[in-house]
Amino acid sequence: MRTWLQWRHIPLLFMSIVALSPLVLLFSNSLKPRDQFRADPFGLPNELVFQNIIDAWVRADYGRAFINSAIVGVFTITIIVISASLAAYALAKVNFRGSNIVMALLLFIMSVPLGLFLVPLFFIWQRLELMDTLHGIILIYSAIFLPFNIFFLRSYFVGIPNELLDSARVDGCNEFRIIWSIIFPLARPALLTVTLLAGLWSWNEFFFANAFLQSQEIKTVATRYILFTGRFSSDWTMISAAGMITIVPVIIAYIFLQRRFIEGITEGSLKG
């Protein structure tokens, strides 16, 4: 009789513990009294203090931050899904000169560390008066997230039979009608995966949001917990509560959509 735990499960169990331990500590500290945190920051709370979460929500104005993150996420997802789909279709199904050069440029952009874009973008965005605006950060997110999603969708589109497209052209469909009527329905799992990835990335992104969004009223969720840090001291229970507020929507979204997310990833890799 086979037992539920075998030797090959031990590395997976170890990695799960390593990955979940910070989250458990975060949730524990977010519900812990401040006095207990100072005495034992790694222990479980003696009593659950939900007031920490309420205070963090009010103090950091998370209601406005959620609206800002939702606006950024919706527009970023829309731009990425449309742009990546058109670019991936061209690279996968349209023979044109320079396609290999375009692929090489996209691969090169993906290999460049994102931090190298910060200083040039800072001066360009100042000249274009896009600093400290939501549409400015939307353009940045759309640009930095596009290369990977183009590669991902291209690997999926390659697996769609060319005979379907040729028959549609014979019936008089143009390329945009083919994309709308054939490519989009067949690539729905991949498009949903791109939507989830773009949404999660834009929700969790901190580096560019902290640099390009200066006004408190347009800060996103990922940047709000800076309010609880100071030069000489930090309120770690409030920071933990703010972190809990930030990641709970992501966890909920993943729990409900994990099956479709995994299906899109695996089908795209098999078709590629």
Classify the secondary structure makeup into a structural class: mainly alpha
Intertermini distance? 39 Å
The count of β-strands is: 0
Note the run of SSEs as H and E. Answer: HHHHHHHHHHHH
Average pLDDT:
85
β content, as a range? Answer: under 5%
What's this, in brief?
By secondary structure, the protein is an all-alpha fold.
Describe this structure as you would to a colleague.
The protein has 272 residues and is mainly α. The chain contains twelve helices and no strands. The chain has helices at 9-30, 34-39, 51-59, 62-93, 99-111, 118-127, 134-157, 162-170, 175-186, 188-204, 207-212, 236-271. Helix 5 crosses helix 7 (134-157). The chain is globular, with a radius of gyration of 23 Å.
How does the SSE layout of this entry go?
Layout: H1 9-30, H2 34-39, H3 51-59, H4 62-93, H5 99-111, H6 118-127, H7 134-157, H8 162-170, H9 175-186, H10 188-204, H11 207-212, H12 236-271
Salient structural properties:
12 helices, mainly alpha, 0% strand, 272 residues, globular
